[in-house]
Each structure stands twice: as structure tokens, then as C-alpha cells.
Write a structure and sequence with these properties.
This protein is of the alpha+beta class and 230 residues long. The chain folds into 2 domains: 74 residues, Helix Hairpins (Orthogonal Bundle), CATH 1.10.287.90; 135 residues, Immunoglobulin-like. Helices cover 33% and strands 25% of the residues. It has 3 helices and 10 strands, in the order ααββββββββββα. It has a 5-stranded mixed sheet with strand order 3-2-1-5-8, with no helix packed on it. The chain has a 5-stranded mixed sheet with strand order 4-10-9-6-7. It is found in: Mitochondrion inner membrane. It is a multi-pass membrane protein. Pfam families: COX2 (PF00116), COX2_TM (PF02790).
């Protein structure tokens, strides 16, 4: 999860998020190089006493400042498109969950287990236990098996919402009357926090998302217990 004074992204908990972090570092290095080069040119032109009043054009300079930006754009665009296609790839998910946005809570339906469905409300500040995070903890977490592809079907019942978990590189709009889908794979067991990322009304900031990734054995026990209670 995020921590105070954090400047970068959250630690990656999915393969796609790892790719995004690598691409971010790659693009940032290119930005630094361009900025340093432009700063050097500005300083050199301001500080020099040399002038050339007869220079009207230069074919070499024209070629350089046309080709060089094109090369830089290619170096950024190719890995960006690769990650874009990776994010849209959904191959044989082991589990499908439908997330429905409401004002102001989320509800989840495990479509592979027809009886498993529950609402997920934020735990009020006065009810949180030691170790829980204020405004982020919920009464029912979305439990998924770790290291297994999970497909999320996302929609809304009333207004626009957005289901987002930064450490899993997931952010998808929840649109009334429309079913969007995305997927993720958690690389390790853990608890991952997110929030609605579309301004949806007065309590927009009070409908957090909590994904709990567990081992397959624990997930089977959890699903069996939920089916018994249904």
C-alpha cells in the first residue's frame, strides 16, 4: 500500500505492474537525458560570445532535430504498446468475479460459485481494530487465489465508479448498463488496497477496495465456508 511521503509507485504485486514500473524507469531516464541536453544547449548559447550572422540554414541540423525526436518516440512507443496489449490479454482465467459499484460501496459476485455474493462496506473509523488502516479497511474483502489468473467483470448500478488497485495495475471504469472486464495475477499472497477512482458523489472517498490474495488451499476452504453460510 502507499506510505507517507511516497514519491513513486506502490510496490508491484502483479507481472503487469512490474512491467509498468520498468517502463516508468525507462521513460524517466529518457526525460532526464532530454532535459540535460536541452539545458546544456541553453547554457551554451547564452554563455557563448561567438556569433554567425551569415548562417541561414543547415541541412545537417535539420536532419538531426527531425530524426532524433523520431528515434526517441519509437523508444518510448514500442514498449508502451507492448504493455498495452499485455494489459488487455485475458487467457483462460481460473476465477471470474463481478464487481458492482454502488453509492457508496462495492458488491462482489463469484460467478463460478453462484451462491457466493456479498457487499463490501468500509469499516467506520470508530470500529477499526489495531493494525487496520483508516478509510481503507472493509468488512468483507475480495478473496482470490494467489498466482492464478483472475478475471474481473466491472459495472455500476447507479453512477460512474472506477475499480482501481494500484499495486495490481488494475483500473477500470464501472459504467451503468455496461460490462467492462480486466484481469490480473497476484505474484504473492498479501492484502492489496485500492479506492474508487471516479468521483461518484458525496461519499466517493469512502468506498475502498481490498483484495486478499491467499494460497489455493486457503481459498478452497474459504469458498467452502462461504457456500455453507449461503
Amino acid at each position: 500500500m502507499a506510505h507517507p511521503y511516497q514519491l513513486g509507485f506502490q510496490d508491484a504485486a502483479s507481472p503487469v505492474m512490474e512491467e509498468l514500473l520498468h517502463f516508468h524507469d525507462h521513460a524517466l531516464m529518457i526525460v532526464f537525458l532530454i532535459s540535460a541536453f536541452v539545458l546544456y544547449i541553453i547554457v551554451a548559447m547564452v554563455s557563448t560570445k561567438l556569433t554567425n550572422m551569415f548562417l541561414l540554414d543547415s541541412q545537417e541540423i535539420e536532419i538531426i532535430w527531425t530524426v532524433l525526436p523520431a528515434v526517441v518516440l519509437i523508444l518510448i512507443a514500442l514498449p508502451s504498446l507492448r504493455i498495452l496489449y499485455l494489459m488487455d490479454e485475458i487467457n483462460s482465467p481460473h476465477l471470474t468475479i463481478k464487481a458492482i459499484g454502488h453509492q457508496w460501496y462495492w458488491s462482489y459476485e463469484y460467478t463460478d460459485y453462484q451462491e457466493i455474493a456479498f457487499d463490501s462496506y468500509m469499516v467506520p473509523t470508530q470500529d477499526i481494530s489495531p493494525g487496520q488502516f483508516r478509510l481503507l479497511e472493509v468488512d468483507h474483502r475480495m478473496v482470490v487465489p494467489a498466482e492464478a489468473p483472475v478475471r474481473i467483470l466491472i459495472t455500476a448500478e447507479d453512477v460512474l465508479h472506477s475499480w482501481a488497485v494500484p499495486s495490481l495495475a488494475v483500473k477500470m471504469d464501472a459504467v451503468p448498463g455496461r460490462l467492462n472486464q480486466t484481469s490480473f495475477i497476484t505474484t504473492r499472497p498479501g492484502v492489496y488496497y485500492g479506492q474508487c477512482s471516479e468521483i461518484c458523489g458525496a461519499n466517493h472517498s469512502f468506498m475502498p477496495i481490498v483484495v486478499e490474495a491467499v494460497s489455493m488451499k486457503y481459498f478452497q476452504d474459504w469458498s467452502a465456508l462461504m457456500l455453507e453460510d449461503a
